[in-house]
Specification:
With about 400 residues, the chain is of the alpha+beta class. The chain contains 13 helices and 13 strands.
């Protein structure tokens, strides 16, 4: 054991950011929503809201039934991203290896930056204090420290809110004994059922199980689970974020319809959102998935590899819009979704058939203008009238175990 890994998880993040920004919200139940309509979903709850039973995934109407005084706010992605940037600037003062896990979580490899767990604990206390001093007094976090990436996250997951937990070889089995299988990162109810079928009913059972047998039964993933609880490093902390597997956007339509002109406008806006994220990471894609859901049940979709790589919104919409045009709509559509995959760094290779490099530069220029002066500063005509549709959202991208 020669590594020291720290995982930090901001508590009730979006709601805490709102309470930090507005002192009148402090001490009150606050729910941050994807949309404020009755069917909108709560994506973050303050500590006070959670005490009322208002948790992530709760609908707006349900939250209001649980507490008529709950303060519901539509999410503001720019506000959360700017707060995250401030927090990550603090984290990078302590090590050159910081791996974002999501907008409110990160791993830090402190190996070589601190000598032992006791000093890492003091460093974690200092990080928490700096976040409160430099970002805001309402910004609390849970921190886990251990010798592998997985154990550090397991520690922060089970640590009391606002606290720091160190898992070392001496206390590892104690924490495995006192927590359920689903408390462990990477084990959901389906995996728990598969583990139960093998006679594994606790994390200690998993730790003591024969690794060859679990590999034969559950494949590589099963072995990873066994290795994780045994303190064997499966994946190290990396600098920066790895390339995502896919990028996309979806939107529940306020107007349920079969009008393809309206649906096409919304779909173009969704393609623009996906394209902006793609270009922001300097990536291009060669796979597209398009899906539409009907008002009652079911839907239609298509996923395929594209003959040419996609970078601009027009390139993405060429395939998404083509799918919509070809599809016979059986009933009004309630949701549209687009995602692009098979992502690679953007190429400077010129196409044989068109001046694709100029189109890439035009898209980049439009993105920069909209980033600097605000959304809808420069738009294509097809997006006219879609300002309030498929607005920016915060994604909870998570990296595998």
């Amino acid at each position: 054991m020669n590594k020291i890994i720290l995982h930090i998880d901001m508590n009730s993040y979006f709601a805490s950011v709102e309470q930090q920004a507005n002192p009148f919200l402090r001490g009150k139940p606050v729910g941050v929503c994807s949309y404020l309509s009755p069917g909108g979903c709560i994506i973050a709850s303050s500590v006070e809201a959670k005490a009322k039973g208002i948790k992530t995934g709760c609908r707006v109407r349900e939250a209001q039934e649980l507490d008529s005084k709950v303060v519901l706010l539509e999410n503001e992605p720019a506000k959360y991203r700017s707060t995250t940037e401030k927090i990550f600037r603090i984290l990078r003062r302590y090590t050159d290896t910081v791996e974002p896990y999501s907008i409110d979580e990160a791993f830090l490899d402190l190996t070589g930056w601190t000598k032992d767990f006791s000093r890492a604990f003091k460093m974690a206390e200092e990080i928490q204090k700096r976040i409160k001093n430099d970002v805001g007094e309402w910004m609390n976090s849970s921190v886990g420290i251990s010798w592998t990436r997985w154990l550090a996250k397991f520690a922060s997951d089970i640590a009391p809110k606002k606290n720091i937990l160190v898992i070392n070889p001496e206390n590892l089995e104690h924490y495995l004994m006192t927590h359920e299988l689903q408390d462990a990162w990477g084990i959901n109810f389906r995996m728990e059922a598969r583990l139960n079928a093998l006679g594994i009913r606790s994390l200690v059972d998993l730790k003591k199980f024969n690794p060859d047998n679990i590999r034969r039964a559950l494949g590589r993933y099963g072995y990873y689970l066994w290795a994780n609880v045994n303190g064997l490093e499966v994946s190290a902390v990396s600098r920066g974020s790895p390339t995502p597997k896919s990028i996309g956007h979806s939107y529940c339509l306020p107007k349920r319809t079969t009008d393809k002109k309206y649906l096409g406008s919304v779909l173009y806006k969704i393609c623009e959102k996906a394209g902006r994220r793609l270009r922001n990471q300097d990536l291009e894609a060669e796979q597209i998935s398009v899906y539409l859901a009907y008002i009652r049940s079911g839907g239609d979709g298509q996923s395929h590899k594209t003959p040419e790589k996609m970078f601009t919104t027009e390139e993405i919409y060429r395939y998404a819009g083509g799918f919509l045009e070809r599809t016979k709509l059986l009933m009004p559509v309630s949701m549209l979704a687009v995602s692009v995959g098979r992502l690679t760094p953007v190429s400077s290779q010129m196409s044989l058939f068109e001046n694709n490099l100029s189109k890439k530069e035009l898209s980049r220029a439009m993105d920069k203008l909209n980033d600097k002066y605000g959304e809808y500063t420069v738009i294509r005509g097809r997006m006219f009238g879609t300002r309030d549709m498929a607005r920016d959202r915060i994604g909870f991208r998570k990296i595998g175990i």
